[in-house]
Design brief:
By secondary structure, the protein is of the alpha/beta class. The chain has 13 helices and 25 strands. The chain is 26% helix and 21% strand. The structure holds adenosine-5'-triphosphate and magnesium ion (MG).
């Protein structure tokens, strides 16, 4: 990939600027950040943006980043997600060292902070049910009304709250609310709920608790307990910031982290909301969280994306407060750029067309020894056998070639990569009129690397020797959705209507050069002239290799979109 096509990389961002200033002014000596996923799903490319930011900032400023699970909702959380998240963060290249924590580690302290609020008259036990609470909350244009339980005495509140903790009440009968302002224009400040009763076993604390703190209460206080200096979150939490600051100010918090919001990543032609990803998985529209069409980190890994490509992508999109809708090509280009540097080359014929080289001896085999990587001689060479019967790709032959078609056609010449120039002498048809095979002749004087090479043949195509090649299965992936903004054209917003029916094409008759027999799961190759392909880590077997197409060599979608919009 040439540099002129590369998207420029932002050197820094407004968050790093703030942090630099805080260090320069002496406000902080050390920077502490955190990445706080809820273990209710696997990580996606949007999370990668947050991971690269939080861990990246800690690395850049020699600080630390906590890997903290926000595990306050025992209903939806699962240990399988915890393990998957840790694996993905590590795979992406980040290390939390000793700083692996859970909001649930702080349940006892959080509880004491809640009692402190009650003692100060800043929180009360609410005994209305959820509907009644909602009724009095007001709307964006109308203020809320005070709850009849708002003026309970401190003693009553403490007694009730302790009984809540002791399991004396049923789910939904009481909650603890902050006492802030029911008339606040910011609905988050209208006496938000801090604790609720949930008689459900928690994946870490088991049955130790039957009351659980809510996100807003837990988050800021966990930040403070960890000494987080900059709590970086996405823009939807902007309206929660006054509550974040209120809570920290009202309790004896050990420090005052600063919340800074940035815009979340949106990518065209995909969905990144966990709720939707879960739906895709549960309703089996995809083959699990790591389906190579999913933009989860596990899906991208299985698809063949190297972690460096994802980090490069995150660097390119940068950090800002402006809403964005990133083109998929930015992600794909990052993969192309990284893989171009690292992927060994190989020849693979996806749709084989038999070619018999009639003037080549029947029992002869030659071995060519091209480099594994054209720009990296350290990767060494490979052996590619050549014989009388080869496969070329159906796409590289036309009965009726258009002008300037430089591949094979009746009577025309083409160079076989690393080998010879051949001429198509005869086309053999099936009984139904389809091209079955080609009879060609080769010119011995045109062997690659010899002096006679100087002959003018414009096209070069790839091939494999039939008797030496290895049959493999190849899965060609395309975007999971046909709409750049899935669900946007549907009155009900049903994004499933926009699923791409052709998002996977399985090609079972492919042939690859024999060196690929050594390929291991997750190895990525560049199939010359075709794209980057990765050995599937789930379903590939040494005796039945399966390759996933990571990305094509060029951005075919940009061209399609241009054609569709009539600009071409
Ligand atoms: P979703 O909205 O998809 O359900 P979430 O925000 O609830 O995701 P969390 O597990 O809470 O998922 O996210 C952990 C961190 O990752 C949060 O700090 C969140 O802001 C960040 N994050 C999640 N999605 C994105 C995104 N698309 N772009 C940037 N950061 C994101
Ligand atoms: Mg969240």
């Amino acid at each position: 990939m040439s540099d002129k096509n590369s998207t420029p990389t932002p050197a820094t961002d407004f968050i790093r600027n703030i942090i630099s200033q805080d260090l320069d002014s002496g406000k902080h000596q050390h920077i502490v950040t955190r990445f706080p996923p809820e273990p209710n799903g696997q990580l996606h490319i949007g999370h990668a943006k947050s991971i690269c930011l939080n861990f990246g900032v800690a690395n850049d400023f020699d600080g630390k980043c906590f890997m903290r699970f926000d595990d306050t909702n025992p209903v939806k959380e699962d240990n399988e997600y915890v393990e998957g998240i840790l694996r993905d963060v590590r795979w992406l290249g980040f290390d939390w060292g000793e700083n692996l924590t859970h909001a649930s580690d702080y349940f006892e302290q959080l509880y004491l902070f809640a009692e402190e609020l009650i003692q100060k008259g800043k929180a009360y036990v609410e005994s209305q049910n959820a509907d009644e609470i909602r009724e009095l909350r007001g709307t964006l244009t109308e203020p809320g009304k005070n709850s009849p339980f708002r003026e309970r005495s401190v003693v009553d509140n403490l007694t009730l709250f302790r009984k809540m903790r002791d399991g004396e009440f049923d789910d939904g009968t009481h909650v603890l609310r902050a006492k802030i302002d029911m008339a606040s224009p910011n609905i988050n400040l209208r006496d938000p709920v801090l604790y609720r009763i949930r008689k459900i076993s928690h994946q870490r604390t088991a049955d130790q608790w039957c009351i659980y703190p809510l996100y807003d209460f837990t988050h800021g206080l966990s930040d403070a307990l960890e000494g987080v200096t900059h709590s970086l979150c996405t823009l939807e939490f902007e309206d929660h910031r006054p509550l974040y600051e209120w809570i920290l100010a009202e309790v004896s918090a050990p420090c005052l982290p600063r919340q800074i919001e940035f815009s979340r990543l949106n990518l065209r032609y995909t969905v990144l909301s966990k709720r939707r990803l879960i739906q895709l998985v549960e309703e089996r529209h995809v083959d699990g969280w790591d389906d190579p069409r999913m933009l989860t980190l596990s899906g991208l890994r299985r698809r063949g994306y190297p972690p460096s490509a994802i980090r490069l992508f995150c660097k390119r999109i940068g950090i800002s407060k402006s809403e964005n809708n990133i083109e998929m090509s930015v992600l794909e280009d990052s993969a192309r750029e990284e893989l171009d540097k690292t992927a060994p080359r190989a020849m693979a014929v996806l749709r084989p067309l038999k070619v018999v080289i009639t003037n080549y001896p029947e029992d002869k085999t030659e071995e060519f020894e091209p480099s594994r990587h054209p720009k990296n001689p350290d990767m060494g060479t490979r052996k590619v056998p050549f014989s009388r019967e080869i496969y070329i790709d159906h796409d590289d032959f036309r009965i009726d070639p258009p002008a300037k078609y430089f591949r094979l056609a009746p009577g025309k010449e083409v160079r076989l990569r690393f080998a010879y120039v051949i001429r198509c002498e005869e086309v053999i048809y099936d009984s139904d009129g389809k091209v079955r095979e080609l009879h060609c002749t080769y010119d011995q004087a045109t062997r690659s690397g010899t002096k006679a090479e100087g002959r003018k043949v414009k096209g070069i195509i790839h091939w494999v020797s039939i008797q030496h090649s290895v049959p493999v299965e190849v899965r060609l992936y395309d975007r999971l959705f046909v709409n750049p903004s899935p669900g946007s054209d549907d009155p009900g917003g049903n994004f499933l209507n926009d699923l791409n029916p052709d998002s996977i094409e399985t090609v079972t008759s492919c042939r690859v050069e024999p060196g690929l027999l050594k390929a291991k799961p997750a190895d990525v190759y560049q199939f010359e002239r075709v794209g980057y392909f990765c050995v599937d880590s789930k379903e590939s077997r040494p005796e039945a290799l399966v390759f996933n197409r990571t990305v094509t060599l060029r951005d075919t979608w940009a061209k399609l979109e241009q054609e569709n919009s009539g600009q071409n």
